């Protein structure tokens, strides 16, 4: 699910993606 989210938002920078991953993890 997390990977799909990242793939769906490739426009966001790596920093933003990392934040999303952390949020998704929680």
TrEMBL record:
Origin superkingdom: Eukaryota
Organism, as annotated: Corchorus capsularis (Jute)
Protein name: Uncharacterized protein
Lineage per the UniProt record: Eukaryota, Viridiplantae, Streptophyta, Embryophyta, Tracheophyta
